[in-house]
């Protein structure tokens, strides 16, 4: 692998992918809309070329990915844009890969699985999404599988990490850095799974280097699930005993959503994830790649806070 493109390079997972790739000496085309943010993140990186184009235009994607062996799709649209744009942009990315004879590596979430029933989710778990956004993600997956492009799809739990601003953990940490109490979305006693973006990027790049990994879906779990209570103990140990959490139930989330705009209202249907453990199984991944070393949650939180303080 000599040259690749990362779509959505200015987002949390996109940023982690670019950093992982250039650390391996791979040339990267960093693709996103916002030029200023891309320059801020990668302007000093010798192996990164910046492209500020529009993924809604297939010609922009085709031109930007010329010479790229793999296209990493890490673009994260606002929820309110999924209905109109998710399938269209997926089709455009497929077209670009076809035109340039590139492979695809796609960042995906867990929404297409629907409710877990409390069991760890393997890749063969029957996808039966009951939410609008889960159905849209399943449609995206079917589009990818029906194409002629070699594609691998990585399913990740909620992210946290450097530059991962559009996440629940960032929301909580940002509040804690300004005041003593912060909101944690979800009940205090239900296990939740979060993955450090650096860990996710390493696994994804490792998979992208292996031909046999393509035309498959891969579930990539985090280091270990945690509850709100356990997270609060961690926060106190890292930021001080005076820090604390309050827990945002679905009813509280619904109330906040009335005043917080369309994006939060769109997130309301996804709160089922907080009502039961929704945890990914990593058995297939470990059978394929061996034991996966993950960053301990406390270390990842410390590194994320350090990045936020820069």
The largest sheet is:
7 strands, parallel
> How many strand elements?
11
**What value does the average pLDDT take?**
94
Q: What class, by secondary structure content?
A: alpha/beta
Major beta sheet, strand line-up: 3-2-1-4-5-6-10
Low-confidence stretches: none
Fraction of helical residues: 40-55%
Q: Whole-Å distance between the termini? A: 32 Å
Radius of gyration: 19 Å
Could you state the order of secondary-structure elements as H and E? Answer: EHEHEHEHEHEEHEEHEHEHHHH
Shape: globular
How many alpha or pi helices?
12
> In percent terms, what proportion of residues is strand?
15-25%
Describe the structure.
With 310 residues, the protein is an alpha/beta fold. The chain is 42% helix and 16% strand. It has twelve helices and eleven strands. It has helices spanning 12-23, 35-42, 58-64, 82-100, 132-146, 168-176, 197-208, 228-239, 250-260, 262-267, 283-289, 297-308; strands at residues 3-7, 27-32, 48-52, 70-73, 103-108, 151-155, 158-160, 181-185, 194-196, 216-219, 244-248. The chain has a seven-stranded parallel β-sheet with strand order 3-2-1-4-5-6-10, sandwiched between helices. The chain has a two-stranded parallel sheet with strand order 7-9. A two-stranded parallel sheet has the order 8-11. Helix 1 links the parallel strand 1 and strand 2. The chain is globular, with a radius of gyration of 19 Å.
């Amino acid at each position: 692998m000599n040259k690749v493109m990362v779509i959505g390079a200015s987002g949390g997972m996109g940023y982690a992918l670019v950093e992982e790739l250039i650390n391996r000496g791979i040339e990267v085309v960093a693709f996103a809309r916002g030029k200023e943010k891309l320059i801020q993140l990668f302007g000093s990186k010798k192996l990164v070329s910046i492209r500020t184009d529009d993924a809604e235009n297939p010609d922009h994607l085709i031109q930007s990915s010329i010479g790229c062996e793999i296209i990493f799709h890490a673009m994260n649209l606002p929820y309110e844009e999924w209905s109109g744009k998710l399938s269209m942009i997926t089709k455009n990315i497929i077209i670009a890969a076809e035109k340039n004879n590139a492979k695809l590596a796609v960042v995906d979430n867990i929404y297409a699985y629907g409710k877990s029933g409390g069991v760890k989710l393997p890749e063969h778990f029957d996808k039966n999404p009951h939410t609008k956004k889960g159905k849209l993600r399943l449609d995206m997956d079917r589009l990818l599988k029906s194409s002629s492009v070699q594609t691998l799809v990585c399913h990740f739990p909620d992210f946290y990490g450097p530059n991962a601003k559009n996440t629940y953990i960032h929301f909580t940490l940002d509040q804690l850095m300004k005041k003593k109490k912060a909101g944690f979305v979800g009940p205090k006693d239900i296990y939740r799974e979060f993955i450090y973006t650096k860990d996710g990027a390493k696994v994804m790049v490792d998979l992208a280097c292996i031909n046999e990994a393509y035309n498959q879906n891969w579930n990539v779990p985090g280091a270990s699930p945690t509850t709100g209570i356990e997270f609060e103990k961690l926060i106190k140990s890292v930021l001080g005993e005076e820090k604390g959490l309050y827990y945002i139930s679905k009813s509280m989330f619904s109330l906040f959503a009335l005043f917080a705009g369309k994006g939060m209202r769109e997130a309301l249907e996804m709160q089922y994830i907080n009502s039961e453990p929704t945890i990914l199984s990593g058995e297939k991944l470990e059978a394929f790649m061996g034991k996966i070393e993950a960053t301990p949650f406390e270390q990842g939180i410390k590194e994320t806070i350090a990045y936020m303080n820069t």
